[in-house]
Amino acid sequence: MPDDREAEKADKRRKALTAFLRQEALAQGFDLCRITRPDAIPEAAIRLGQFLDKGRHGTMGWMEETRERRGDPRVLWNETRSIAVFGLNYGPDEDPRGILERRDTAAISVYARNRDYHDIIKGRLKEIATRFAARSKEDVKVFVDTAPVMEKPLAGAAGLGWQGKHTNLVSRAFGSWLFLGSMFTTADLEPDEPEIDHCGSCRACLDVCPTSAFPAPYQLDARRCISYLTIEHKGPIDPELRPLIGNRIYGCDDCLAVCPWNKFASNASEMKLVARDDLREPSIAFLLGLDDATFRTFFSGSPIKRIGRDRFIRNVLIAAGNSGERSLIERCRELAADPLPVVRGMAVWALSRLMTAGEFTAFAAQRRDEADEEVRAEWKLAGVR
Ligand code: B12
Question: Catalytic site residue 197?
Fold first, then answer.
């Protein structure tokens, strides 16, 4: 029957294109590539709405602005028939929490210890997309991170893993250490089965969080998350949270690193990202010395460059204030005269913790008139009227 023959032909083409895509993904160094449909995540839009309505996105206004498109892939691109989700393993060689005890040293989260993963993944996705479009004669669009796409629920629906209680995607093969990216296409591809939740009664990620950023399992309040505070949030950081940040100066890995599924994680990915040696355990003293030009050169090609020198130094000053290292006092004093208010303010806070009460009173007595309201608030917080 002609109908049967058509269906058979379509099925053959679907299988062939899916196999081709997987092969291309492996060739580009992705560890996983699985397929889902654009209508596979109806509950994600509702949960995104709840997250936004509670204000848990903080100052990430772009999440609110893209609410409709983000919640539903069909609104983003209504011709999408299939979504391929890609996973790239970035599992570290050792537990990144080791550095948290070394207070003279700054902790940079694992994903930011080398080149910007957006650039790496985007380049590889574009290669795959070009070859796939040529082969299939279908339209394709690729996305990673910054596009209004809910990558984690899509990855769960495609079966790369499941969203753990820390809200990140956990994989049986790679634990909590996967970057995600996606390709939307008009092509009809063979969908994979979703993965089920394997967190069980474990709550290690919830309990380890230094700032108690999880109001409930599977829910994050970004406003308390160290990753948000050190990367996305501009301006001063809530004084109550500063001591809890410790020496984490860019992102936080605690909820990922504690995940028991990491022990099954394969370390054998062929094209795994390797940490830059000088970003494994940089000293706080060195980082505090960076000015605008040296900051740009040192972090060239790194995601850290995106937050700019001033927000970065704000973070390093918090680590300095938490370090107990008196050798940092001199540099903090210099930064208390920085042109940028956010730097001056955080230097005042750091000094209030590093100096003795007498030293701090003497330092405060020499201060110049402060025009900025936020910096004045820091002096007040430190007990100086
Ligand atoms: C905004 C954002 C952030 C924000 C907010 C994080 C968040 N959890 O929403 C901040 C800045 C805090 C952040 C931090 C990090 N991020 Co981020 N971030 C994103 C981004 C751009 C959007 C995420 C999003 O849509 N959030 C909105 C919320 C509502 O969606 P959700 O997290 O999926 O929430 C689900 C659950 O809460 C669940 N849920 C809610 N209630 C309930 C109830 C029940 C019973 C159940 C079962 C489920 C459930 O349903 C929701 C919808 O699926 C994505 C990239 C992308 N485009 O997807 C990267 C992304 C999630 N980030 C990533 C990474 C690596 C990180 C960090 C590890 C970086 C670091 N080391 O510092 C941390 C991890 C912090 C954490 N525990 O989440 C990776 C995660 C990869 C993975 N394996 O999952 C992504 C996918 C980027 C990428 N392309 O690889 N991030």
Answer: no
Cβ of 152 less than 6 Å from ligand 1: yes
Ligand 1 binding pocket includes 298 (Cβ within 6 Å) = no
Q: What is the mean pLDDT of the chain?
A: 95
Domain ranges (residues) in the chain: 2-101+114-185, 283-385
Nearest atom, ligand 1, residue 166 CA: 77
Task: Name the pTM for this structure.
Answer: 0.96
CA distance readout (Å), 14 to 11, 178, 195, 294: 5, 27, 22, 52
Dump pLDDT digits (tens) for 279-302.
Answer: 999 999 999 999 999 999 999 999
pLDDT for position 267: 62
Phi, psi of 319 (to 5 degrees): -60, -40
- Select which of 3, 53, 72, 145 is catalytic: 145
Of all atoms in ligand 1, which is nearest to the CA of residue 214? Answer: 77
Q: Which pLDDT score, from 0 to 100, does residue 232 have? A: 97
Rounded-to-integer distance, Cα 18 and Cα 192, Å: 10
